[in-house]
Design goal:
The complex is a heterotrimer. Chain A is of the alpha+beta class. Chain A has two domains: 2-166, no CATH class; 174-282, Cyclophilin-like (Cyclophilin, Beta Barrel), CATH 2.40.100.10. Chain A has helices spanning 34-43, 187-195, 266-270, 285-312; strands at 2-7, 12-14, 52-55, 60-64, 68-74, 80-81, 84-85, 90-94, 99-102, 112-116, 150-151, 163-165, 174-178, 198-200, 208-212, 227-228, 233-235, 243-245, 252-253, 257-261, 277-278, 280-282. Chain A has an eight-stranded mixed β-sheet with strand order 21-14-15-18-17-20-13-22. Chain A has a six-stranded antiparallel β-sheet with strand order 7-6-9-4-1-11, with no helix packed on it. In chain A, strands 2-3-10-5-8-12 form a six-stranded antiparallel β-sheet, covered by helices on one side. In chain A, helix 1 (34-43) packs parallel to helix 4 (285-312). Chain B is an alpha+beta fold. Chain B has two domains: 6-78, Gyrase A, domain 2 (2-Layer Sandwich), CATH 3.30.1360.40; 88-217, Cyclophilin-like (Cyclophilin, Beta Barrel), CATH 2.40.100. Chain B is built from four helices and 13 strands. Chain B has helices at 25-39, 66-78, 103-110, 114-122, and strands at residues 6-10, 14-18, 44-49, 53-58, 88-96, 126-131, 138-140, 156-159, 163-167, 170-173, 178-180, 183-187, 208-217. In chain B, the strands form three sheets. Chain B has a seven-stranded mixed β-sheet with strand order 7-6-13-5-12-9-10. The radius of gyration of chain B is 19 Å and the shape is elongated. In chain B, 44% of the residues are buried. Chain C is mainly beta. Chain C is 10% helix and 39% strand. Chain C has one helix at residues 3-15; strands at residues 21-26, 29-34, 49-53, 58-61, 77-78, 83-89, 92-97, 102-107, 114-115, 120-126. In chain C, the strands form three sheets. Chain C has a four-stranded antiparallel β-sheet with strand order 3-10-8-5, with no helix packed on it. The chains are: A alpha+beta, B alpha+beta, C mainly beta. At the A-B interface, strand 16, strand 20 and helix 4 of A face strand 1, strand 2, strand 3 and strand 4 of B. Strand 12 (163-165) of chain A pairs antiparallel with strand 7 of chain C, so a sheet runs across the interface.
């Protein structure tokens, strides 16, 4: 029910990620900010895991070729529907011919998520609708969206508009559990991991964030065999500058790892802008588990309030 | 086997088990056995073998991870090497030319002739240790150390699927276009991955690959 | 009573009426009070103001939590469906939107006040038909 009118690049169809195919060399993919995508889906009464569109570069314009409910979360990009100002983190209904434009994001989250009623209707591949760029499958033909692309919503008529959510706060720092090779760092390097305000360089993208800051060194050279990794793993290549693996991370790597960003904080990292700075805070297993549970509770409560609201209109 | 295995956390979503000792075939065969056993445990989402190691991902983070770690160590102690499947896939390779742009670097580093490099590359049967890196990609064991060539200082932005490469002491075949820091010496037209098939990857850990020189472009 | 005070009392009395001219004679004195012609505050061709009531109970928020500044100020022109305010219920924000295009005349609720369904929130002066 939508047609892409203009995109500056790198917008893809994503759900919460592909699981169960790591052993075939297929990584998770999925939204960089899974909390925002889940919330956008909840705003429409979708399953949290329904496919949406992740927009990373702005402006972005699409046209509704049929009536459809939609929701926008993540970055606040001064969205307009045919010139009407939209509020961020809200659900709306569009009629045929209306045009939705997303402008440049205000300071804050840098990626926007667009959900459609029922979810973006593309085929499931290996259990997910996320776009797998390397290998070119999943999402829409395994590639970024282009002007002229048409996408359908699975249940366009189920939209209800006129409400939204209080956006969750991003906050700083990002919590990390040390990984196996953390102990091989020099003491100075270990301190620097936590004290440095790491800059997200322009060479950062969905595959990984290349950070710049103090050079970190191991007490002795470290050689690794290829081993499984997950998004959030912080690798330290010979350059001494860390790389944080993100959504399009390969499922395996050969660099030493100094830590892993906890799953509950990956969404915040996924919203950090190029050129921004991040800090890491050392956390514990139980704190990380508790953080994940707090996130699930927030989503569950948001879903409950939204269901009540949708039931009234 | 001497030495103790290493267990570490990858955040709260995965556990990494690393076997002690060098990555010899027998050790890898025990990794396959451990992977098979752990894949059935209820809290494990997926068991993902690596080269002499195993990653176990969780569906949800367990409240207490210590009992799981103990179970992994116990299962390793019991793990018996799984024999090779016996399925050997022969890949026809066009060595050199446009599909093998870094063959000169390998001959320069090793001091061997093009024919010697190809002979040493096509002689062994390479067991598939694990899949990873990208869809369908196989980590192979058994390359002759004489043709080992260090990874490139500057990775190539994109090498096509089917590229046959040497990186350090390992060799491999890429299954789709992407960046690589390895030295590409040839190309094969075989498709390793089809997401519509079940399983989607052509090869499994325990299979083996042989390279056959279909043509040499000089 | 002085003349000035009489004038004051008479003026006050006149204010509440639409009498245009009053002559008060007492003794040899005449006090004449004349009302200036009434100039309407608003051009007479505009329709009456519309009250926008709360679509739900909740906490009235003049600004969206993620944006600075009130969404609708007196004198501001709005289009139909433009957001005027939000009502907060926990994590949920219910939109208060302009039912018609027009000009915001008055904000009738205080920021942070708990309002009920139907509580008047805005007075909106509907725009003239084109």
């Amino acid at each position: 029910m939508i047609e892409i009118v203009a995109t500056a690049g790198l917008a893809t169809v994503q759900d919460l990620g592909r699981s169960g195919s790591l052993r075939y060399g297929v990584g998770r993919a999925g939204a960089m900010d899974r909390v925002s995508l889940a919330a956008a889906n909840l705003l429409l009464g979708n399953e949290e895991d329904a496919a949406g569109i992740e927009i990373q570069i702005f402006p972005f314009t699409l046209c509704f070729t049929g009536p459809c409910g939609f929701a926008l979360t993540g970055a606040d990009c001064g969205a307009k529907l045919d010139g009407t100002n939209l509020l961020p983190w809200s659900a709306y209904t569009a009629t045929t011919g209306q045009e939705l434009t997303l402008g440049l994001p205000s300071p804050g989250p840098s990626r926007a998520y667009l959900a459609l009623s029922g979810g973006v209707d593309v085929p499931e591949v290996l259990g997910s609708r996320s776009t797998q760029l390397r290998g070119a499958f999943g999402g829409l033909e395994g590639r970024a969206l282009q002007a002229g692309d048409r996408l359908s919503a699975a249940a366009p008529g189920t939209g209800r508009g006129g409400f939204g959510l209080v956006p969750p706060k991003l906050g700083d720092p990002v919590r990390v559990l040390p990984a196996a090779e953390y102990d091989l760092l020099t003491e100075t390097a270990q301190d620097l991991v936590w004290s440095t305000a790491w800059k997200i360089t322009a060479q950062s993208d969905r595959y990984g964030y290349r950070l710049a800051g103090e050079t970190l060194t191991f007490a002795e050279p470290v050689e690794m065999l290829s081993h499984g990794i997950v998004p959030g793993v912080i690798q330290l290549p010979p350059s001494g500058q860390p790389i944080v693996q993100m959504s399009d991370a390969q499922p395996s790597g050969g660099y030493p790892k100094i830590g892993t960003v906890i799953d509950a904080d990956l969404w915040r990292l996924g919203q950090a802008p190029i050129g921004g700075r991040i800090r890491f805070a050392r956390t514990t297993w139980s704190e990380a588990v508790a953080a994940g549970e707090a996130l699930r509770r927030w989503l569950a409560e948001a879903g409950r309030l939204i269901r009540l609201q949708r039931g009234r209109t | 086997m001497t030495g103790t295995p290493k267990l570490s956390l990858l955040g709260t979503m995965a556990l990494l088990f690393e076997a002690p000792g060098p990555p010899v075939l027998e050790s890898q065969q025990r990794i396959w056995a451990l992977s098979r056993a752990a894949a059935d445990w209820p809290e494990i989402e997926e068991a993902v073998p690596g080269v002499n190691n195993l990653m176990l991902t969780f569906r949800t983070a367990p409240r207490n991870v210590a009992p799981l770690q103990e179970r992994v160590l116990a299962a390793w102690a019991e793990a018996k090497p799984i024999a090779l499947q016996g399925r050997v896939l022969e890949l026809p390779v066009v060595y050199g030319g446009d599909g093998g742009p870094h063959l000169p670097e390998v001959t320069a580093h090793t001091g061997l002739s093009v024919d010697d490099v190809i002979d040493l590359h096509t002689a062994p049967t390479y067991p598939v240790y694990a899949l990873g890196s990208h869809p369908g990609y196989c980590y192979l064991g058994g390359m002759d150390k004489r043709i080992a060539t260090p990874r490139r200082k500057v990775p190539v932005l994109s090498i096509p699927g089917g590229a046959v490469s040497i990186g350090g002491e390992q060799t491999g075949v890429s299954a789709s276009a992407g960046p690589s820091g390895w030295n590409t010496i040839g190309t094969t037209s075989l498709r390793f991955f089809d997401p519509e098939r079940s399983p989607p990857a052509l090869l499994r850990p325990g299979d083996a690959i042989r390279f056959r020189a279909e043509k040499v472009v000089r | 009573m002085s003349s000035v005070e009489q004038v004051r009392i008479l003026s006050r009395w006149l204010e509440g009426t639409d009498i245009a001219l009053l002559e008060w004679t007492r003794g040899g004195e005449t006090i004449t009070l004349r009302r200036d012609p009434v100039r309407p505050a608003v051009p007479p061709c505009h329709a009456q103001g519309e009250t926008v009531g709360a679509p739900s109970a909740g906490v009235f928020r003049a600004a969206h939590p993620a944006r600075a500044g009130a969404l609708a100020r007196p004198g501001q022109r709005v289009r139909e469906a433009d957001p005027l305010a939000v009502l907060q219920v926990g994590a949920l924000l219910i939109h208060v939107s302009a039912p018609v295009a027009g000009t915001v005349q008055a904000v009738l609720a205080e920021d942070g006040a708990v309002v009920g369904y139907g509580t008047p929130l805005f007075r909106l002066m509907k725009a003239a038909a084109p």
